[in-house]
């Protein structure tokens, strides 16, 4: 059976009072979601204790949006994988396109962070995706596979099955443009095939999420595709009823 997973990415949004309403509404709306669908919210680091306080004991997991490439020591401002584990995080987003484009994260940095997260016992959500220029120049597959291969090469084939992949075309993130179900399926199948090539049968159980302007209206058609196992949801995860409707889809 398909493993279904929907993760909310709050990005740099939220304040204590608003978070409480949002988290409460998500927790209270879970009866609408089919059993077997896993939910998580990746919140700003400082709000992880709040997410834990509200979600503990519910079916919703929580996580961070980034992790340090370092273990511990003189790295001012960094948050380590072990610290996320201490706060009960299950997941951590790594290599989101905003980290890659705005903060200069390279494939090699992403790979090191994934290894750190795995060693600490977190489930990394490895974000990959091409820009519009890369898609239009015909290099979508090269870009996505290059990003994925960097992780596999650094973490080893044994890591396949221990991370989630999120395919997020950069041109669809926060733009209102969603990949068509067929476009998403094409890339998800490519990712699955690469995972199977190196990892074997375990590849069929790796959740491959689609992200990029998913809305309640577009979710069901995207999630109906064979290799789309759920979503990574940005803007719509800040609205409980939209997020729950996407999860229900
Ligand atoms: C994201 O930030 O991962 C994302 C997919 O954002 P949005 O849903 O707003 O496009």
Secondary structure elements and their pairing?
Elements: E1 4-9, H1 16-28, E2 37-42, H2 48-55, E3 60-64, H3 81-86, E4 91-94, H4 97-102, H5 107-120, E5 123-128, H6 132-136, H7 140-155, E6 164-167, H8 181-199, E7 208-211, H9 216-223, E8 230-233, H10 240-248
Helix pairs in contact: 1-2, 1-10, 5-7, 7-8, 9-10
The structure holds phosphoenolpyruvate.
Give your account of this protein's structure:
The protein is α/β, with parallel strands linked by helices and 249 residues long. The protein has a single domain, classed as Aldolase class I (TIM Barrel, Alpha-Beta Barrel). The protein has 10 helices and 8 strands. The protein has an 8-stranded parallel beta barrel, surrounded by 6 helices.
Largest sheet: 8 strands, parallel, barrel
Instruction: Evaluate the radius of gyration.
Output: 17 Å
How is the largest sheet built, in terms of strand order? 1-2-3-4-5-6-7-8
Question: Could you give me the name of the CATH homologous superfamily?
Answer: Aldolase class I
As for the number of domains, it is: 1
Query: What is the overall silhouette?
Result: globular
Query: Alpha-carbon distance between the termini?
Result: 16 Å
Question: Given this structure, which CATH class is correct?
Answer: Alpha Beta
The total strand number stands at 8
